[in-house]
Amino acid sequence: MADGPTITTIAERAGVSIASVSRVLNGLPTRQETVRKVMAAADELGYVRNAVARSLKSRRTHQVAFAMADVGNPAYLAMLRQIQPVLKAAGYRLVLHSTDAVVADEIDVLHSLGERYVDGLIMSPLRVTDAHLQMLAAARAPVVIIGTVPEGTPVDNVRADSRTGVRLAVDHLHSLGRRRIALVNGPPDTWPGASRGAAYREALEQLGLPYDDDLVQIGDFYRAQGGRAVAELLERAPDVDALMCANDLIALGALDVLRAAGRRVPDDVAVVGMDDTDLAAASWPSLSSVSLGSAERGKAAAELLLDRLNGDDAAPRVITVPPRLVVRASTAGETYGHEGGRT
Fold it and tell me: Which residues belong to any copy of the HTH lacI-type domain (predicted)?
């Protein structure tokens, strides 16, 4: 008698065939519902798979990597909270890489796909260089990009519509009577920085407001750098009455600086962030923010990658997640309510 559970007992517990159990445990393409049943039965029975032997036989590791710019950014954590359960249900472990948006580190991650340490990769780069595109074209494992890549890039791509998101924010500020609306942006050589900068100019033009270089401040996508950028902006343009911040971390830095300067939010200066992270609702005052669907993008990316791992060879797909404006106290005042509303 065997010392522990076998594929036969797993098949009986899962209510599937022995052949189906064998396919799942050997990493072969199988329906996701079957994978879920088999993995649940294996866990219940205490079945321990020989990962090394399985990998040698199937050339699969049952590991997937997620490479992000900043593991401390709540937007990426929101993605992670959706990516991990989708992959875990399919029997995959998740390996995390925090690249600090360093291009060389991202290229190294792409290059290492040739070593087959993971079966696939989800990556969210801030910059997409020629080196990225060359490595993506030659990738020896499925890759899904969360972010924006040029048209024709041969990978699945899940995007945010930050241009529409900026327009929602600027329109909201304008509707409140704000006319000196500043942009506090991240680096313009990044996809988010470039798209949000362009969208800000377009939004002003459509509202009939003049573009003023004094109302644009470049920083980085971190709280401390955002605060420093806002301090510089206030010195140059003290009459600013609204801040459109390129992400929530910048906006939180803005709240810090405005509070220290004795500027009331939103009475003196209204503030809008982007990403609608958990920090937005928890800040004081609570932060109006444009949700770019971080959780939805993470889930979509994981599902696209699983399709590829299960043998889908269709043309690369592009999914765009629509933005939502969440209005809270930093623009509407505390009487509006802590949770605010969505548009």
Answer: 5-58
Report the amino acid identity of residue 92: Y
Given a contact cutoff of 8 angstroms between Cβ atoms, the answer to whether 329 and 339 are in contact is: no
Q: To which CATH superfamily is domain 7-58 assigned?
A: lambda repressor-like DNA-binding domains (1.10.260.40)
Q: Hey, what CATH topology would domain 63-159+294-312 get?
A: Rossmann fold (3.40.50)
Residue (of 139, 137, 123) closest to 191 by Cα position = 123
What's the CA gap between 93 and 75, in Å, rounded?
21
Distance CA 235, CA 169 (A): 24
User: Which residues is 137 bridged to in the sheet?
Assistant: none
What token pair was written down for 94? 């998740």
The residue whose two tokens read 């052949």 is 19
Please tell us whether the domain made up of 162-291+324-342 is placed in CATH 1.10.10.10.
no
For 236, phi and psi rounded to 5 degrees?
A: -85, -35
pTM, two decimals, is 0.81
Domain spans of the chain, in order of start? 7-58, 63-159+294-312, 162-291+324-342
**Hey, is 237 helix, strand or coil?**
coil
